[in-house]
Amino acid sequence: MIGEKCHYHSLALLALLFPLQERSCWGLNPSSGDLEKSPHSDPDSWDVLHRNRRSWVWNQFFVLEEYTGNEPLYVGKLHSDVDKGDGKVKYVLSGEGATSIFTIDENTGDIHATKRLDREAQAYYTLQAQAVDRLTNLPVEPKSEFVVKVQDINDNEPKFPDGPYLAGVPEMSPLGTMVVQVVATDADDPTYGNSARVVYSIEHGHPYFSVEPKTGVIRTALPNMDRETRDQYVLVIQAKDMVGQMGGLSGTTSVTVTLTDVNDNPPRFNYQYTVLESLLVQSVVARIKAADADIGSNAEMDYRIMDGDGPGMFNITTDEDTQEGVIMLLKPLDFETKSSFSLRIEATNRNIDSNFLSLGPFSDTTSVKVTVEDVNEPPVFSIPLSKMVVSEDAKVGTSIGRVSAHDPDNSNSPIRYSIDRNTDLERFFNVDALSGVISTAKPLDREANSVHNLTIFAIESHDPTQIGKGITLITVLDVNDNAPVFAIDYETLLCENAIPGQVIQTISAVDKDEPLSGHRFYFALAGPAAGNLNFTLRDNKDNTASILTKRGGFRRREQPVYRLPVLIVDSGSPALSSTNTLSVRVCDCDSDGVALSCGAVAYTATGLSTGALLAILGCIITLLVMVLLIVTMRRRRKEPLILEEERDIRENIVRYDDEGGGEEDTEAFDMVTLRNLNVIRDPNVRRDVTPDTPTFFHYPSASRPSYKSLPDNVVFREFIWERLKDADVDPSAPPYDSLQTYAFEGSGSVAESLSSLESLSTDSDQNYDYLSNWGPRFKKLADLYGNSDSTTVLS
């Protein structure tokens, strides 16, 4: 779509350019290609004489859903007549999905979609666009509202909300008898294209049944189906969108059709015994009896199996009470392996009288046919115990392996898989319900659980009560993701009389990882401690290290505790390391090196009784209470009785939160003028004020001594009087009392002030080596500011 700006130079030119103006001020529908009026244009815009200039022109209203490109999807372009191309106007987008889904280039007005859109989740978005001044952020045009519609694609397959179906039809029904109607729904837009137009077909169930393509009605395709021959059929019905054309999506459902019985067979007597496939071993299969006119012991009989096609499957015994032959099951039955057995059984009198042998054999035989009836058995895993491995750093969704199970019955029902969550409480794994592929659902940690024992369920789709179980062992392979640390919390004691090179501690490390080649740790002192003058570390090359002293003469009064950073590196790929702090306590030891007392030396007062301590404590509390009372009274005296007006600023203190660069900032202020008390000033004397500033010491103006030569009890008073004199003779001072603040610390020691504020404001290197000559109290400053290359002591 092309947008043009509307310019109105003259009425004649307007008439000539009217077709072009129509194209530029109205939106072009991308689906029809016709010119149509924008839904948010001015209602009088068709009137040439009274036409208002409309600010917005866009050339896109539709966005294709499920866009899979790498770049943001271009939606359209907005442009305002106020925008002259000089960068003073920027475009702002608001409304549904603004900034989160739709973005606008504030310079060009191009709108893009940054996320994949789903029409089934939201079919359209209402947005508002506005042009604002880039400097003031004030709108230069009123908001313009437009709608971005999500155009449907065929991304949803038909589904059967009521499937799977169970239906029944009488046996011997005529051709075309209705069985059941199936209905499939499609979530795509039914008003756009053929994405939601579904046709039905039968995938499995020929030639017994058929389905009407448009209605989904299932009918019988053969007449006179006999229930005694087959009583159940499983159909698979497919629903395909796009009117069944190539490229359409499809979904299936199962329909189980059962033939109901009608009275179509006369009664008959047969010599057949039917047993269930699930019959347990040592269960009774059947009872048979040979009729004998005798009674008592003469009627006692023994039964045996003479012949049969199932050797070892059955046994027969005699019931002594009824003289029946009881056929027992010796091995499990499997309908899918063998569905019937034929047995030849003989019954013989137990007590034969030899006087009547001529009457014939005292035995008889009969044939028994045992039919195995099929029962629905649970699915069986091809591998009951599966073993899989997965790396510890596997990403979520990584496929680990696949389990497989099948239905042992003739129906061969589809199988769905699931995980027994009692064996995966934290839900580390998922299994695909259809394929049986097991994948990771959460990050794994071998150190927390190295082996996962999962129970996988295989469930028949047609009969969810039939559940098979399989075991899957998943071993998590180790990766180097844990840094080594100290094996224990070491408490290292160092005797004051320790000699240089003495081993004071042997350390070792542990690592939660378990590499195949075993652990190998490397020890070293961490960077700042590598060159310290107190201790050194020796790697023993056996996953241990020794801490040795580099000097003697440790004193706990000087430093009771040393903290030594130790770097431990493992041999993994990539290698991981950690810095662990070893605390070394200086102790007073006996001649055998046994620590007597460790840590800082405590100074305790001795010789005071409990009463004396309580008296001292009472005095301290009394003094604190008195000080608090005095401070409170003085504060009350200083509180003004009448609050001054806020506009009276003569004695107000104004605070500015302007922070400088610290002591190193010599560019913002001249600190020499602020702190150097001996700077010679030449103030301008006020002509209308006669200063009268008495002083305790009178000096000629030409020979005034510095503050360093004044007595200690006079230097502060002289400083205050001199500053008061400077303020009185200052012509720029206000004509009323004001608060003056000075940061005077006194003349100090002979070493003068060590503050950097006393130094010159220029960058110069000052030599502080003389601090080492001032005694032990300045040793720390000498170490900090001196130029010696000695390594500092760790603390």
From TrEMBL:
Its main location: other. InterPro entries: Cadherin (IPR039808), Cadherin-like_dom (IPR002126), Cadherin-like_sf (IPR015919), Cadherin_CS (IPR020894), Cadherin_Y-type_LIR (IPR000233), Catenin-bd_sf (IPR027397). The chain crosses the membrane at residues 612-631. Residues 1-27 form the signal peptide. Residues 80-160, 161-269, 267-381, 382-486, 486-596 form the Cadherin domain. GO terms for molecular function: beta-catenin binding; cadherin binding; calcium ion binding. It is found in: Cell junction, Adherens junction; Cell membrane. GO terms for cellular component: adherens junction; catenin complex. One of its GO terms (biological process) is calcium-dependent cell-cell adhesion via plasma membrane cell adhesion molecules. It comes from the Eukaryota. It is a single-pass type I membrane protein. Keywords: Calcium, Cell adhesion, Cell junction, Cell membrane, Glycoprotein, Membrane, Metal-binding, Repeat, Signal, Transmembrane, Transmembrane helix. The keyword Membrane applies. Cadherins are calcium-dependent cell adhesion proteins. This is Cadherin 7.
